[in-house]
Design a protein that fits this description.
The chain has 10 helices and 23 strands. It is of the alpha/beta class. Bound molecules: flavin-adenine dinucleotide.
C-alpha cells in the first residue's frame, strides 16, 4: 500500500524531508509551500552586502526537477492534526503521515517604530531593502540589534555587524557600530568561537552589548530604546524582528507556549503520525537550517523504517555545523551538539578562506539534491 506523506513548508526542513522520503518507491510525497521559491538564510546577507544578485539567490519551486515529489504552490489555510488533513488555496490534502515544516514567521510591526524608523534584515524583502539602504548610506552610527527571543541563526547578527563594518570601511565611509544581543556571548555553546568573534569586534571597534534587547525605536529622534531602560542613537538600524509560528499553526492547536513541542529524539508531536521539524518547533536546538535539515533526515528515516514494516529506530543527535562569516572572505565553522538535559558543546574550525568555498559547496550541494539541477 502506498503511504501518503504530506509535507507542509518547502524550506530547509521540508525540502530535505520530501527529497529523502521520495527515494522510496512506496510513498506518495506532496510538498506544499506558498512562496515563489527557496532562499537560504545566509544568501540574504550575500544580497545585503552586494555579493549576490536577488535573482541568483531565489531557487524557484517551478524549476524543481524531482518527479518523485508533487509540489503544490499554495497557501495552507487550516491544519487538522487529528484527521491529518490540511486545507489550502489549492484544495484539501489527506495524509497518512503529516510533517509540519512551516518555519518561524517574522513580525516587524511587533516592535514599535521598527517599520517606520529602521530596517529588518531577516525576511527576504527586508534583506533586499536593507541592501538598498546600505548602498545609499553615507556612513555614521549603525546599530545591529535583536528585538526578542528566540531568533533564527544566533550567529547571524554578529556576522551582520562584521560584514557591515567591512562594507562601509572598504568604501571609505565612517562606521560607528554597536551590536545589541540577548545572549551573554556571541556563540554561547562554543567559548572558542565567542572569543574569536569578540576579538574581531574589538579589532574593529564594534561595541557589543550582551544580554540586551531593543524594545522600540523612535524614528523622529533616531534612538533605540533598550531593555535596560537606556537609549542608543543610530543613523542606520538593522534589526532582527520578533518571531512566531505562522498563524495557521497557531490556529491548529499544535503549538504550546508559542511553538510546537516534539519528542527531541523522534520529532513526533503529541498527535499520532504527525511530525514537526525545524524553526516551528521548541525542540531545544537553535532555529537554524542545519538543525531543520538534521531533524528532517531523522523523520524521513523513521517514516521509511515504518513503511518497511519495522518501528522507527533512527534518533536525532542534536548536531549541526554552522558557518560563520568574519568578512574579508574569512569563514569559520562551528560544530555544535545540543542534547536535551545536557550543556550544549561546540568546536570552532577556522576562520579561513578555504571554509568560504566550503560554504559555497554546502549551498550548491543542497540545491542540486533538492531541486535536481
Ligand atoms: C540572515 C539569516 C542568516 C541565516 N544563516 C543561516 C546559516 O548560515 N545556517 C543555517 O543553518 N541557518 C541560517 N539561517 C536560519 C535558516 O534560514 C532557518 O533556520 C531555516 O530556513 C529554517 O528551516 P525550516 O525548514 O524550519 O523553515 P523555513 O526554511 O523558514 O521554511 C518554512 C516554509 O514554510 C512556508 N510557509 C509558512 N507558512 C505557510 C503557509 N501558511 N502556507 C504555505 N507555506 C507556508 C514558507 O514559505 C517557507 O518556505 C539564517 C537565517 C537568517 C534570517
Amino acid at each position: 500500500m502506498t503511504t501518503r506523506v504530506v509535507v507542509l513548508g518547502a524550506g530547509f526542513g521540508g525540502l530535505e524531508l520530501a527529497t529523502t522520503v521520495a527515494l522510496s518507491g512506496d510513498v506518495e510525497v506532496t510538498l506544499i509551500d506558498q512562496a515563489e521559491g527557496f532562499v537560504f538564510g545566509f544568501s540574504k546577507l550575500d544580497v545585503m552586502f552586494g555579493k549576490a544578485d536577488r535573482d541568483q539567490v531565489l531557487h524557484r519551486y517551478a524549476e524543481m526537477v524531482n518527479p518523485e515529489v508533487r509540489f503544490v504552490n499554495a497557501e495552507i489555510t487550516a491544519i487538522d492534526p487529528v484527521e491529518r488533513r490540511v486545507e489550502t488555496s489549492a484544495g484539501r490534502f489527506d495524509a497518512d503521515v503529516l510533517v509540519v515544516a512551516l518555519g518561524a514567521d517574522l513580525d516587524p510591526s511587533a516592535t514599535p517604530g521598527l517599520v517606520e524608523g529602521g530596517h529588518e534584515f531577516y525576511t527576504v524583502a527586508g534583506a533586499f531593502a536593507a541592501a538598498d539602504a546600505l548602498r545609499e548610506f553615507p556612513g555614521g552610527r549603525v546599530v545591529v540589534a535583536v528585538t526578542s527571543t528566540p531568533f533564527k541563526c544566533p550567529p547571524a547578527p554578529s556576522e551582520t555587524a562584521l560584514l557591515t563594518y567591512e562594507y562601509l570601511t572598504s568604501r571609505g565611509l565612517p562606521c560607528d557600530l554597536t551590536l545589541v544581543m540577548p545572549l551573554s556571548t556571541p556563540i554561547p555553546p562554543s567559548p572558542d568561537a565567542s572569543i574569536e568573534v569578540l576579538a574581531a569586534f574589538e579589532e574593529r571597534g564594534i561595541d557589543f552589548l550582551p544580554e540586551t534587547l531593543v524594545r522600540s525605536l523612535d524614528p523622529t529622534r533616531k534612538v533605540a530604546s533598550l531593555s535596560d531602560g537606556s537609549e542608543l542613537p543610530y543613523d542606520l538600524f538593522l534589526g532582527v524582528p520578533q518571531h512566531r509560528v505562522p498563524p495557521v499553526v497557531a490556529e491548529s492547536g499544535l503549538a504550546v507556549d508559542g511553538w510546537i513541542p516534539v519528542d527531541p529524539l523522534t520529532l513526533e508531536t503529541s498527535y499520532p503520525q504527525v511530525y514537526a521539524v525545524g524553526d516551528v518547533t521548541s525542540v531545544g536546538t537553535p532555529k537554524a537550517g542545519v538543525f531543520a535539515e538534521g531533524q528532517a533526515a531523522v523523520v524521513a528515516a523513521r517514516i521509511l523504517e515504518s513503511i518497511s514494516g519495522g518501528s522507527g529506530r533512527t534518533e536525532y543527535d542534536g548536531r549541526g555545523v554552522c558557518y560563520l562569516e568574519f568578512g574579508g572572505d574569512q569563514v569559520a565553522k562551528v560544530d555544535v551538539t545540543f542534547v536535551a538535559g545536557q550543556r550544549p558543546v561546540g568546536e570552532l574550525i577556522g576562520p579561513s578562506a578555504s571554509l568560504a568555498s566550503d560554504k559555497i559547496t554546502f549551498g550548491r550541494d543542497r540545491i542540486r539534491r533538492w531541486f535536481g539541477h
